[in-house]
DNA sequence: ACGTCTTTTTACGTTAAAGTCAACAGAGAG
DNA sequence: CTCTCTGTTGACTTTAACGTAAAAAGACGT
């Protein structure tokens, strides 16, 4: 198995972030790349973790929340009390995510309405636009 | 029609925010309650706006993004160029929201996996828990 | 070996979104 | 009228999440 590594700039380019960001995440304990001398070497696993972090950010979670969530992925703890705690956290997170999904649904619906209004207004005043802007192809979902 | 109003503290209690937050939103131009003397009086419309703001926050949007989105809801502009711009913004927002929804789906799936692992681990070590914690009723969706 | 480019470390600066604190105004209860 | 609540304004502070700058150490092509 060939352990391929990524340099810091490769990751910054792939994900459109800065080196400062990556080092900051490391300082926060979210990443822990290997070192060759002083240089950081990011493994595929590190890259995956980074993707999880960025996904969390897109969803509006704070770095500490993200840290907690990623912590769950590690492995189920051996002790019963810890397991129960983990289950509680999962339940809480799930509720939060479902709420966000409802919020998104509402917002999308409202956007549709605004768009319909705009479209009507367009028809009223200007006729049709030259390019396809008036018949946007909707990105497929899920 | 009776115009019922809300005091600032009523809103803070209903939405679990502080007066500071409400005044801050006002300073940012997100709210504009009437005044009776110096006192703020929030109309039902103001309350609705506030709900939109908080929903935006839950989804991780910044206040200026929220401001822009709420601005769309106002009314379609009369000028064609403005209309087109509006449509573009709508399209961009929609894409963003759909991405978030995909992200949520992935995260939920991962949570399910973690939960399954935890459940298995539970069965392994401790048998079943006394209360219903081991058979969580899933919140209904949408 | 040399100059150039990348990377690291350290330190200070910045921005958004409030929190905290102080001083004061108005309104109603006793 | 005085006390107490609620609300207001203004100033200062805080926190998260980076940005920016400076100096030095490696890495790389020729």
UniProtKB/TrEMBL annotation, chains A, B:
Q: Which CDD domains match?
A: HTH_GnyR (cd04776)
One of the record's GO molecular function terms: DNA binding
Q: Which residue ranges does the record assign to the HTH merR-type domain?
A: 5-72
Q: Which SUPFAM superfamilies match?
A: Putative DNA-binding domain
Q: Which controlled-vocabulary keywords does the entry list?
A: DNA-binding
| Source taxon at top rank | Bacteria
Q: Does the keyword DNA-binding apply?
A: yes
**Alphabetized PROSITE patterns for the sequence:** HTH_MERR_2
- InterPro entries from the UniProt entry: DNA-bd_dom_put_sf (IPR009061), MerR-type_HTH_dom (IPR000551), MerR_fam (IPR047057)
Protein name per the record: MerR family DNA-binding transcriptional regulator
